[in-house]
Design a protein that fits this description.
mainly beta, SH3 type barrels, 60 strands, four-stranded antiparallel sheet, 1 helix, about 650 residues, Methylamine Dehydrogenase, Chain H, about 0% helix, globular
């Protein structure tokens, strides 16, 4: 297994399989048995196959850097950055490397030095074949293949077929390698894997190699392809989940004998002072340190040893964006049962009481902002309605007997100290932050924010967040508010004598602001990048700011939630590999220790640490089920 999805096609040379992965590594694997010869960390995802000539391996990464390695040792010979996207594999021929560069240029590099010899517009001849470049893709002008005809036989195929030994091999996004008879294109069998297969298979010395979105590189062998081969070992008894790219030793503190990548699941045979004795895919044994022993698999969750109980809480069908009450006795949520329309919209607010399992409708309302807020005493819920082009702040009592319209405004959030609400009002080029009591008294504007950038259409605003002592309000302002295009977090003093501060970023959007219980730390998520660069990161990052020291720690990706005592921050990290999906981490603030709590093979919506110290994992299902749009089912898994 590699550390990311594999979309690149394998290349076989000198009894070695060469393949790049989205984890940013290029691997040289043994062709006849499991194991690495070497791997090279390029630091950026590799989407396309490499090319070999004169004992040199050439490939490029998503940040537009071209590499030349010694194919035998993996040592770097040179690297060269080009000025735009490369959207197809390199071609190595006659001492040159040819690249298609967005949108219609062909770069020709010297194989030995990496020097750019020429930049040719649109077309060139390589080995007697005329190639053209469009949209950064370098391809023959008149390809001589039957790829499209074969693809039509295989649903959801983006792979190119390979013909060998009387068979056609082609992958599909349904998660399989298909083997067809060359004579009549009849399917002989299909080999299912854990993710889509976009890569073009490679055939070498009676074996077929291909990569998958599940992160694995597969090798199938056999004199006849009429029988489905084995998919490798499956652990009996105890198993462990490998964390990060990990060395495997012949004994604790001994010699390194192999490397295994993050996400590999191995049979676990012994533990010794933090060391784990595992069985490798080739049948050999070794010791490693970075692993999570798996206790059991339940509800698509890989649950570690030591967690014995997993409670389940199902909300009323259509419930989404749930939030626990501060006393831990109730869950409130908007109910979305009508799925028509362009925008997310709910018509009711409901509450579920886990102790009894009963659910109750609190009120009807026209809701486009799904974020609700509990009062500290768990007696009131604040929410926003939108009707007749006007947004209002409302509160409803926990039992539904008291419903009050408080004021005009958006994105309400209850104070951590009293029955006060902070909210926003946005009108054209001005946003503002306000506070008000739930009876409508004490209305006061805290801050006016001019929108100096390019305003974007929005469905709803994200609520400001009170500090635990009620003295500061943190509000996220996206890049559209500023000429720089860079988002900021404003820390606004609610009372006199409290200095307001600005937290700068280099991203477009800020969300999921969360204070630690003692008010010392602020967690928040940044996403987007104001620079239009080929190598610009676009995924989410979770930031943890120490308010006192201004030190910042960065994690991947989202949904920060604090333990009640403030010692731990839990968060979710998305994994692009099919079959893993999400990892849940626990970070201990005082020690800086990060521990993998569990792995989800299914979808996770968010995490929520409950007042009694348990952690709730919320899962909201998809709308399309059985070929029809249906209200979502949200389930909480509590551990």
């Amino acid at each position: 297994m590699t550390g990311g999805p594999v979309t690149a096609s394998p290349l076989v040379w000198n009894d070695t399989v060469y393949i790049g992965s989205q984890d940013g590594r290029f691997y040289a694997l043994k062709a006849k048995k499991w194991g690495e010869r070497w791997s090279f960390d390029a630091g950026s995802p590799i989407q396309y196959s490499g090319a070999i000539e004169n004992g040199m391996l050439f490939f490029h990464t998503r940040d537009n850097v071209v590499y030349a390695l010694d194919a035998r040792s993996g040592s770097l010979i040179w690297k060269r950055k080009v000025d735009n996207w490369i959207s197809s594999p390199p071609i190595a021929y006659g001492g040159r490397v040819y690249l298609g560069v967005y949108d219609k240029k062909i770069y020709i590099l010297d194989q030995r030095s990496g020097k750019i010899r020429d930049r040719i517009p649109m077309k060139t001849e390589i080995g007697g074949v005329l190639y053209i470049c469009t949209q950064g893709v370098l391809r023959p002008l008149q390809p001589m293949n039957q790829a499209e005809g074969i693809r039509k036989r295989i649903p959801f195929s983006q792979s190119y077929p390979v013909i060998a030994n009387g068979y056609i091999f082609i992958g599909s996004r349904k998660g399989a390698l298909h083997v067809l008879s060359q004579s009549d294109w009849h399917e002989v069998f299909s080999f299912s894997v854990g993710g889509g297969v976009d890569s073009t298979p490679a055939v070498y010395d009676g074996m077929v190699y291909f990569g998958s979105y599940d992160g694995y590189v597969y090798a199938l062998a056999g004199k006849s392809y009429a029988e489905k081969p084995s998919q490798g070992i499956k652990g009996q008894g105890r198993r462990c989940f490998v964390i990060g790219r990990s060395a495997v030793y012949d004994r604790p503190e001994g010699e390194v004998i192999a490397y295994v990548n993050d996400g590999e699941i191995l049979p676990l045979y012994e533990e010794q002072n933090g060391w784990y004795r595992v069985k490798l895919p080739d049948g050999s044994f070794g010791w490693m340190r970075s692993a999570m022993p798996i206790g059991r698999s339940e509800h698509d969750l890989l649950i570690p040893e030591g967690i014995s109980k997993l409670d389940t809480l199902k909300l009323k069908l259509g419930g989404e964006f749930p939030i626990w009450s501060p006393d831990g006795e109730a869950v409130v949520y908007p109910l979305r049962t009508k799925l028509k329309g362009q925008y997310w919209h709910a018509d009711e607010i409901w509450v579920t009481f886990p102790e009894t399992g009963k659910s109750q409708k609190l009120c009807s309302a026209s809701i486009y902002n799904p974020y609700l807020s509990w009062s500290l005493d768990s007696k009131w819920i604040a929410f926003e309605t939108y009707d007749s082009n006007v947004s209002h702040i409302w509160v409803v009592s926990r039992d539904g007997t008291d419903l009050r319209r408080v004021t005009k405004g958006e994105a309400p959030s209850f104070s951590s100290k009293a029955h006060r609400i902070t909210f926003r009002r946005r009108r054209e080029l001005v946003d503002s932050v306000w506070v008000v009591n739930i009876d409508g008294s004490g209305l006061r504007r805290i801050k006016t924010i001019l929108i100096m950038g390019t305003p974007q259409q929005y469905l709803y605003l994200l609520p400001p967040r009170w500090s635990p002592d009620g003295r500061i309000i943190a509000v996220g302002t996206d890049g559209e508010y500023y000429q720089s295009g860079e988002a900021k977090i404003l820390l606004l003093g609610v009372q006199g004598g409290v200095e307001s501060k600005i937290i700068h970023s280099r991203s477009k959007k800020v969300s999921e602001i969360s204070w630690s219980p003692d008010g010392r730390y602020l967690a928040y998520v940044l996403s987007g990048n104001p620079g239009v660069r080929p190598d610009a990161p676009i995924d989410k990052r979770l930031f943890l700011l120490d308010i006192r020291t201004q030190n910042v720690i960065t994690f991947n990706h989202t949904s920060p939630t604090w333990s009640p005592d403030g010692r731990f921050l839990a968060f979710m990290e998305h994994d692009d590999r099919a079959g893993i999906n999400w990892k849940v981490w626990i970070y201990e603030v005082n020690t800086g220790r990060k521990q993998l709590l569990l792995v989800s093979r299914g979808d996770l919506s968010k995490l929520e640490w409950m007042p009694d110290g348990r952690l709730c994992l919320w899962v909201t299902g998809k709308y399309i089920r059985g070929g029809r749009y249906r209200p979502a089912q949200t389930t909480g898994y509590i551990l």
